[in-house]
Every structure is written in structure tokens, then in C-alpha cells.
UniProtKB/TrEMBL annotation:
Pfam families: Glucosamine_iso. Residues 11-229 form the Glucosamine/galactosamine-6-phosphate isomerase domain. PANTHER family: 6-PHOSPHOGLUCONOLACTONASE (PTHR11054:SF0). Hydrolysis of 6-phosphogluconolactone to 6-phosphogluconate. It comes from the Eukaryota. Keywords: Hydrolase. This is 6-phosphogluconolactonase. NCBIfam families: pgl. One of its GO terms (biological process) is carbohydrate metabolic process. It comes from Candidula unifasciata.
Length: 246
């Protein structure tokens, strides 16, 4: 298990650019090696960074398979729907087929939608084992949550499911489906992108704090992979180790 790598940039636009260049490098390497690139993306600020930067990268979009680290269980027409954000802000600008991006089915109950999402994952990850994503692009909320895995929630202990329903998310909307830690920590590369001084305290706690009960974002430590944090100066401003500074 490798220690987190931390990269600090002077502006949000540089974070987005660096994130997207890194994702493209990973994508092109995976395509060269195996002919396919598997990625799960997040909502919130990470979605904005990806939609801003990915249209500029050079890659073979036909080889990408795009899942969601988590998704809100809302209709596609709801502004909280992460899939619809990508559909509006990324799909018109890149050659990614809608057959290669996998939304949650909001017409099912949240429990059925999670079951259905596990089947969608198994249709792409066909070896029957735990899916191993090439890249996860993760965000972190000000409480230290990542995906829809919240501090103190029983889903942090989930060990059987690869995608699980949650009906009591402390951040609205309450019903969501999320990847679980067995899949997250089986990824080849997990990348966090966080910006703004509002995230500085939680970034410091996650990256430098010690706890017997780590925050969800601090639990992202792929067993045979890397975790990379891409921060702007504001988000990195409370880190104590000088080597993390610009
Ligand atoms: O609710 C969510 O929040 C997190 C963090 O979002 P951010 O805007 O604070 O970066 C996000 O990663 C997750 O996908 C989303 O469902």
C-alpha cells in the first residue's frame, strides 16, 4: 500500500488541467496495454473539473468505459443527477458513446438500482472477481466523505457488495448508490481533486491526522495501487509538511 502522493497547484484551473492530463495518461497506457480503459467518476466539483478539462485531451474515446463512484437516486431531469451533468457538459464535446457510460437507473427503487448497477459492473468486468478500475476520480466533502460513504455510516464496513444503496445520506438527496471500499481499494489508481480554503482543515485531517476510526476519504488506500491528491493552494494551506507546498 503506497503512501498518498500530493500535488499542489496555484489555481483551480491548473488542478483541473493536471487532473485531466493525468487521467488521459492513465487512459492511454491502459488502452495500449489492454485495449480498454475503465474509470469511475464523481459528482460535485470533480465533475466540473473533468468536464472542463477532458475535451482537451488526446485519447481514443471508443475504448473508455465510464461508471460513477456514486450517484444520487433522482430522475435524470433533477439538477442533482450526476450522470445528467456529464451528459450535458461532457458528452457533446467528446466522442464517448452513450453505450459506454453507465448511469444508475432512477426508475427502480434505490435497492433495485444498486443491484442493477452491480450487474452493469459485472458486464464490463467479466472475470467474475472484484472489479479493478484503472482510475477512480474522487471528490471529498467538508465532512471527509467520499463517494456516498459518510463518516460513521455502517456502509464503511460493507464487505460483500460492490455497489450499495444508501437511504439516509446526511447530505441531500438522501437516496444514493455508491461503490464500496472493497472495489475502491482494488483500484489501480485513485485520484482526489479538491480545491478551496474551505477544504483545508479536512484535507489536513485526512492526510496528516491519526485516528483509530479514519474518515472515509482517509480509508482510500488501494492495496495494489496508488492514491494521488491534486490540490490547489487553498486546500493545501493547512498541511504541515513543507514538501507538500508549491
Ligand atoms: O455528494 C457528493 O459530494 C462529493 C464531494 O463533492 P464536492 O463538490 O465537495 O467535491 C462528491 O465527490 C460525490 O460524488 C457527491 O455525490
Amino acid at each position: 500500500m503506497a503512501a498518498p502522493v500530493i500535488r499542489v497547484f496555484s489555481s483551480e484551473s491548473q488542478v483541473a488541467e493536471n487532473l485531466c492530463e493525468l487521467v488521459a495518461t492513465k487512459a492511454n497506457a491502459a488502452i495500449k496495454d489492454r485495449g480498454i480503459f475503465t474509470i469511475a467518476v464523481s459528482g460535485g466539483s470533480a465533475a466540473k473539473f473533468l468536464c472542463d478539462g477532458l475535451p482537451q485531451v488526446a485519447t481514443d474515446w471508443s475504448k473508455w468505459r465510464v461508471f460513477f463512484c456514486d450517484e444520487r437516486h433522482v430522475p435524470f431531469s433533477d439538477p442533482e443527477c450526476t450522470y445528467s451533468f456529464y451528459k450535458t457538459n461532457l458528452l457533446p464535446k467528446v466522442a464517448l458513446s452513450t453505450d459506454h457510460i453507465f448511469p444508475l437507473n432512477p426508475e427502480l427503487t434505490v435497492e433495485q438500482a444498486a443491484d442493477d448497477y452491480e450487474q452493469k459492473l459485472h458486464r464490463v468486468f467479466t472475470d467474475g472477481g472484484l472489479p479493478r478500475f484503472d482510475v477512480l476520480v474522487l471528490g471529498m466533502g467538508p465532512d471527509g466523505h467520499t463517494c456516498s460513504l459518510f463518516p460513521g455510516h455502517p456502509l464503511l464496513q460493507e464487505s460483500k457488495r460492490i455497489a450499495a444503496p444508501i437511504s439516509d445520506s446526511p447530505k441531500p438527496p438522501p437516496q444514493r448508490v455508491t461503490l464500496t471500499f472493497p472495489v475502491i481499494n482494488n483500484a489501480s489508481c485513485a485520484i482526489f481533486a479538491s480545491c478551496g480554503a474551505g477544504k483545508a482543515d479536512i484535507v489536513q485531517q485526512v492526510l496528516e491526522g491519526q485516528s483509530d476510526d479514519p474518515l472515509p476519504a482517509a480509508r482510500v488506500r488501494p492495496t495494489d495501487g496508488e492514491v494521488i491528491w491534486i490540490l490547489d493552494q487553498g486546500a493545501a494551506s493547512k498541511l504541515k509538511q513543507a514538501s507538500y507546498k508549491l
